[in-house]
Amino acid sequence: MSRLKRSVLVAALALSACSDPVDKAAKARIFSAEDPPKVVASAAEKLPPEDVADNPHVARRILGMDAAEVTERLGPHTYKATVSYEWTNGAAPPVKISETRTFVAGPGGVSGDFHGVLENSRDQGLEVMRVGGKVFARNRYGTFRQRLRDRGMAERTRTELTGAIRDVDSLFQGRMQLSPQGTVTYEGRTAWRYDVTLGAAGEATAPSNLPALLEPKGGRDETTRRRLAFFEHRVPQSLVGEVLVDASTSVVLKVRLNGHLVVPPGKGAEGAELRVSLNSDMSAIGQDPQLQPPENFLPDADKPQGIADALDRFGIERNKADAGTPGAAEPADPVDE
């Protein structure tokens, strides 16, 4: 076959292949521009804050907005929230606990730097940083450790730290009702102000179709039974406060809420009551915090030393065989100093 005939045949085959609609669709997908991350696409959605009171979709989107989307919309900022709980159960003394959530977001949107701190009145807490794509974490009084295999821990912590209003709305069965009260100025920005009241029970969000909880072999302990009974039979009694929503970005800028829930007697929680208060605000909007990694941190570890680490620190030898296993154990790995 001559070179000319071969060229004509190749061109004909290529032309016939391109005419196949399946091939055309595949090539369109392969060579099309990459879709933006879901958060970036969500941040581009217009959510008119003036429609919050009349449009449940807009209200739920604004109240449940994720921290990554907030950063995409608002830019660098500082978020601080204080949540207080007072639990009363029967004749027992009330149990009180409060927690403080602080979150500092740098520029860069969803992939930017951030620093989050959670502390509570029982001297517990955690701290997470992401600087230059590197993640560091520690408990309240521990030493920072680098997390090379983050597995989404930093993202989850960012979402949980900044989701206080979302948590309260869920606790009150999605019955947070917002009434517009005009606009105000907050941090030099125009914001819509809403009064918060408790909506009717019929307006609650429908529960998701989740599988049934697994039952332990020995049955649930008393604390778990009480907690599950509370969530199953809780009845919101009141919810009051105010919410400020940024007019240009639809981001919640400030929240003040006080709520009360009860479980009627005979529902497995002995007439339990819960009072909740939330105060949160945004500040330093648009200001780059110039976050820096911690000066001293431990390197990432393949596995925690756990009990073996404690044995080494107290000088207890580990060069004996494991119980029931013949032979000597392997030498211990060096511990962190």
Account of the protein in words:
The chain is of the alpha+beta class and 337 residues long. It has helices at residues 3-18, 21-31, 38-43, 56-63, 67-74, 153-161, 164-171, 222-233, 306-313; strands at residues 77-88, 95-105, 114-120, 125-131, 134-139, 145-146, 176-186, 189-198, 235-246, 252-262, 273-283. It has a domain at 47-201 and 223-283. 26% of the residues lie in helices and 30% in strands. The chain has an 11-stranded antiparallel β-sheet, covered by helices on one side. A hairpin with a 5-residue loop joins strand 9 and strand 10 (252-262). The longest helix is centred in the N-terminal third of the chain and has 16 residues, at 3-18. The termini are far apart.
Number of β-strand runs = 11
Portion of residues in helices? Answer: 25-40%
As laid out across the biggest beta sheet, the strand order is 6-5-4-3-2-1-11-10-9-8-7
- The Cα radius of gyration reads 28 Å
Order of helices and strands: HHHHHEEEEEEHHEEHEEEH
Low-confidence blocks of residues: 31-35, 321-337
What structural class do you assign from the helix and strand content? alpha+beta
Give the overall silhouette. globular
Q: What percentage of amino acids are in beta strands?
A: 25-35%
In round numbers, the mean pLDDT is 81
Measure the end-to-end span: 77 Å
Report the sheet with the most strands, covering strand number, pairing sense and barrel closure.
Answer: 11 strands, antiparallel
Number of helices: 9
